[in-house]
């Protein structure tokens, strides 16, 4: 990533608003949950959700440009990022594999974000959209289990804050006035 491992995640953790929580930790994993109310209907929020280049934080990308991020929201497809560059430096990153989709309601990915990608763990990111008043409630749950080189209780709050940062970015993008 453009940021340096856990130090980048720690800096993001300090900047993110507190609308999230680590809901469980153990010796082999953790669970984080973030939730936000967005003043837009679920279909509009979902359409934005599957366009991460419009709301994902550039500091939390490998290429430094979220325009390189895409989600093909069909089971078996991917949330990927292209790493542009000269032929020897070009590449790509898989952030997650799509395992469950109900447009306008839910998107579930299996995969590792950030520094967790190099560890031997299973990770599931679940994004659920539900109608709420005049808008949509979006809840992110991230479940991580397996072998982690950093103690789960140590890294979980950092991961939680980074995911909340992304959720706040989704809210800002969804509620921004049209150009």
UniProtKB/TrEMBL annotation:
<dbReference type="InterPro" id="IPR023393">
    <property type="entry name" value="START-like_dom_sf"/>
</dbReference>
<keyword id="KW-0732">Signal</keyword>
<protein>
    <submittedName>
        <fullName>ATPase</fullName>
    </submittedName>
</protein>
<feature type="signal peptide">
    <location>
        <begin position="1"/>
        <end position="20"/>
    </location>
</feature>
């Amino acid at each position: 990533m453009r940021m340096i491992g856990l130090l980048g995640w720690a800096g993001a953790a300090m900047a993110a608003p507190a609308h999230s929580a680590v809901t469980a930790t153990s010796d082999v994993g953790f669970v984080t949950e973030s939730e936000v109310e967005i003043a837009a209907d679920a279909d509009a929020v979902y359409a934005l959700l599957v366009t991460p280049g419009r709301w994902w934080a550039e500091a939390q990308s490998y290429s430094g440009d979220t325009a390189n991020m895409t989600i093909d929201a069909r089971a078996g497809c991917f949330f990927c990022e292209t790493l542009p560059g000269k032929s020897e430096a070009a590449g790509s990153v898989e952030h997650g594999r799509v395992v469950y989709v109900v447009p306008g309601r839910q998107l579930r990915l299996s995969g590792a974000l950030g520094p967790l990608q190099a560890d031997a763990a299973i990770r599931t990111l679940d994004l659920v959209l539900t109608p709420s008043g005049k808008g949509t409630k979006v809840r992110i749950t991230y479940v991580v289990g397996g072998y982690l080189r950093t103690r789960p209780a140590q890294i979980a709050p950092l991961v939680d804050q980074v995911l909340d940062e992304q959720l706040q970015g989704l809210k800002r993008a969804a509620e921004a006035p049209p150009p």
